[in-house]
Amino acid sequence: MLSLAKKIVQLRKERNLTQKELASIVGVHFSHMSRYERGISLPSIDVVKKLAQMFHVSADYLLFDDGQAMVRASIADQELLQQFEHLSRMSEREKTAVKTVLEALILKHHLEGMLGVKHAPTTSEEDTTRSDSPSTWIGKRSDAELFHDLEEALDGAKRSGTARRRSTQRV
After folding, report:
1. Quick one: 49 and 110 in the same domain?
2. CA distance 27 to 50
3. Which of 6, 67, 83, 126 could cross-link with 121 by S-S, CB 3.0 to 4.6 Å?
4. Per the domain annotation, does 86 fall within a domain?
5. Are both 52 and 105 inside the same structural domain?
6. Residues 62 and 105 occupy one common structural domain
7. 128 found inside a domain
8. pLDDT tens digit sequence for 51-94
9. Residue 161's closest CA among 97, 105, 107, 96?
10. Within this chain, do residues 22 and 47 fall inside the same structural domain, yes or no?
């Protein structure tokens, strides 16, 4: 478990920053940053907030033990990250519903990949000529063809899952 001081040092070094550079970015004197990193003093809430934003981590990550902290924010989509933070305040039933929807979308994406379905571009640079119409993503295949392929993929996934369970039972 890393202390706040060690986390600041680790995150600063991961970004190849000096104490002076980090202090300047956060808006404190470098001697204060040195004291934070040595565990001699604690930063104010405002400084913790600036550190969290600068390092793209949650304040929870900085302040709490690793077991208590939220997962480091490696999500580049800040809107998505904020939505996940809002989820943490939902009831267990609501969280389960959201997890179920996410699992379904992930499975759908995986199956579409297996079927060769093209997805909409993730950035405007990837393909500015492609329409946002789903029919252009999938090569204008009919719904019947898609459902047939989806059923075959699901059957194949079930067979491979059954085969894996049988092979692990034999061991």
Report:
1. no
2. 9
3. 126
4. no
5. no
6. no
7. no
8. 999 898 888 888 876 554 444 445 556 677 778 777 878 888 88
9. 107
10. yes
In the chain, which residue ranges form alpha helices assigned H by DSSP? 4-14, 19-26, 30-38, 45-55, 59-63, 78-87, 92-115, 134-137, 143-170
CA distance 61 to 41: 18
Same domain, 144 and 101: yes
Q: How many domains does the chain have?
A: 2
Same domain, 104 and 139: yes
Q: How many CB atoms lie within 10 A of CB 149?
A: 17
Residue-number span of the structural domain to which 48 is assigned = 4-80
| Rounded distance between C-alpha atoms, residue 72 and residue 25, angstroms | 20
| Residue that the structure tokens 């706040």 belong to | 4
Asked whether the predicted pLDDT for residue 147 surpasses 60, the reply is yes
- Calculate the alpha carbon distances from 141 to 4, 109, 111, 115, 118 in Å: 55, 17, 15, 11, 12
The average confidence (pLDDT) of the chain is: 75
Q: What are 116's two structure tokens?
A: 């060769």
pLDDT tens figures, 37-49:
999 999 999 999 9
